[in-house]
């Protein structure tokens, strides 16, 4: 019986590190994974795409044209593939309530995650019309790029642009 156990452990050794890594990934706290590059469909003067990924929620990206922002998007990419687990969005111009309503805010966004092999996975998220952090589960393996496309917005009107103060990703590096 002991010999059988030893033989079983011997054959399992090459696979243990993979199993332990998987367990750590599933139970370990996700870490911030910062995109290495980003671009957008357009940007209003003074509100570049970089503002949505700069770590500050008092600066924001907005598209060049005012309106509902439908079809406008933010793209970002990662130097190394990542396993995405969560995404945090601060919609509007700021996390501060007195500044939040000064521009339009995304109501629904389609998130498209592209893997190293080119496979795409989609998720539609609905944002609450409130200032501050909103966290969403997004699951993407070997993700190298993410596109967030505005599907609808709150607070649209003449001279108002859809604003995104910050987007952050959390997961594990592959």
From TrEMBL:
Residues 48-169 form the NAD glycohydrolase translocation F5/8 type C domain. Transmembrane segments: none annotated. Pfam families: NADase_transloc. InterPro entries: Galactose-bd-like_sf, NADase_transloc. This is NAD glycohydrolase translocation F5/8 type C domain-containing protein. It comes from Streptomyces poriferorum.
């Amino acid at each position: 019986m002991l010999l059988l156990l030893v033989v079983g452990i011997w054959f399992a050794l090459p696979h243990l590190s993979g199993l332990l890594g998987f367990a750590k990934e599933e139970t370990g706290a996700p870490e911030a994974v910062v995109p290495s590059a980003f671009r957008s469909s357009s940007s209003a003067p003074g509100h570049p795409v970089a503002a949505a990924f700069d770590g500050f929620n008092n600066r924001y990206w907005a598209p060049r044209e005012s309106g509902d922002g439908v079809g406008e998007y933010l793209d970002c990419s990662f130097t190394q593939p990542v396993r995405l687990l969560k995404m945090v969005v601060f919609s509007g111009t700021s996390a501060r309530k007195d500044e939040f309503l000064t521009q339009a805010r995304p109501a629904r966004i389609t998130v498209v995650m592209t893997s190293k092999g080119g496979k795409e996975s989609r998720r539609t998220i609905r944002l609450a019309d409130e200032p501050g952090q909103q966290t969403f589960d997004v699951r993407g393996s070997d993700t190298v790029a993410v596109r967030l496309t505005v599907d609808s917005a709150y607070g649209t009107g003449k001279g108002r642009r859809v604003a995104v103060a910050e987007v952050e990703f959390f997961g594990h590096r592959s």
